[in-house]
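FORM 7B: Structural annotation worksheet

SECTION A. Query
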Amino acid sequence: MKVLDKIRGDFLGGIVSSIVALPQALAFGVATGLGAGAGVWSAIILCFIAGILGGVLVSGPTGPVTIVLTSMILTHSLELQTIVTVMALAAIFQFIIGLTPLPGIVKYVPYPVISGFMNGVGTLLILLQLNPLIGQPIEASPVEGLKKLFTSPINHDALILGGLTLLIVFLTPKKINRIFPSQIIALILGTIISVKMGADVTRISEISFNFPGFITPVLNPKVILDCVPYALVLAIIASSESLLTGLVVDSLTKTKTPPKRILTAQGIGNFFCAITGSLFGSAATMRSAAAINVGAATRLVTVINPLILLTVLICFADFAKQIPLCVLAGILIKIGYDIIDTKLLKVIKYAPRDDLYVLAVVFLLTVFYNLIFAVGAGITLASLLYAKRVADKTSLGVKTVQDDEIDELEKQLFKVYNYQIRVVHIDGQFFFGSATQLVAQFEEQLGTKFLILNYESGALLDISAIFALEDIIVRLQGQRIRIMLVVKNEEVRGQLKDLNIVAQVGEENVFYNEYDAVDSAKQRIKNKFLGQG
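SECTION B. Predicted structure
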């Protein structure tokens, strides 16, 4: 029965993820200028190959990767064969990265860098689609696009259809969206209305269900050398997104997917995408999560998904040719909005100033200059600011003092209560460098009923540490472990209260000293044993 349940879950996951993937693949293909077919074939080829070789990750064209590719094509006016060469080289670089220890480095990237980049990509995607939304051609840069937006004539049919698309994708109730994604609703309704009203708008026009022919990359050494910088950018962005998706999937499935396997599989899949003229892609977080949430558990989901997309491509190609580009622009604007890190924006007023500097630099460079330079600059700036914080802290001459009485108490605790109560000391500053390591140490706490986190430092937590602490709490509460915090510093307690960490664990579970926390845990165990709570 368990096997049948898994198969049923994979079929459901394949159906749901393909429904999510279809409008995005069409839109991403059109956005790059390679055509809607290039987007759909990318979703088919990459999902199948990377899924079979890499695990339960639904892959295909994604926002950040498409933005990088679109920027290259529009800014440098690259020809098809040159684009294929860039993508093929990027796939080879991605495969090589997968054979090295580099995939493990992604967990050390500070959260403000990731957030600034994602916010920049989301904003860039929105800005680039404003012109197609009102019937104008897409521009190479957001600045040029904004200039043309106010000086070029508006296609009123496109504006009506684009506006209708935005209303559907933003205002569809969540209950309906879970059953039938708003992007599909907008795609179908927008196309039917445009045909019925005889709208004078630009449409997809050409999409083929035939397997794309093979395109030979340029073999000229000079051209290859010119393509290397673009290929490295594409490989790094796609690899980073795939690894981050892998972390999300592992968290949802309680499994461990080796980062090296993810990247080698993505590299092989992207190579076949490249030589067929399909879009470069990566593991897609939204599609993977959608599949897993309805029961997908094995690699079968990455076979079902492309089969459904292939069926749609064969059966509904004539309908797809009628899809207006302004409708796809509206869908891409919603995708751009979803990419923006609203989680951070909600707590931004509490963020340390250093984190805000990093976020702002990465965001502005991503939107107005260069995506990969933005990430590099952000990591460098974050490292320098951290070095400054460490230097400032060291100058205070703080010393660690051992408390023999506390040590003896914890030894007795482990002996008498058989690890039902555990105490973990978070020594030193809890910052982005230590946060990811600490999360890994809390993967599983078998037998523990009460976990006391004793944060003894007086240093405020940065955004990465806050979200890491939140992640630790959610994971442990998911294992039915009660979390208790020992925080002596009033400023830190105030920060945790402002950011709802105190509310998450309960004010009754926050203490000033370890003795009180231990006594409370012991009393609760005794009460439960006596049937009193």
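SECTION C. Observations
Residues 221-253 form the longest helix (33 residues). The CA atoms of residues 163 and 330 lie 7 Å apart.

SECTION D. Sign-off
Analyst initials: ____
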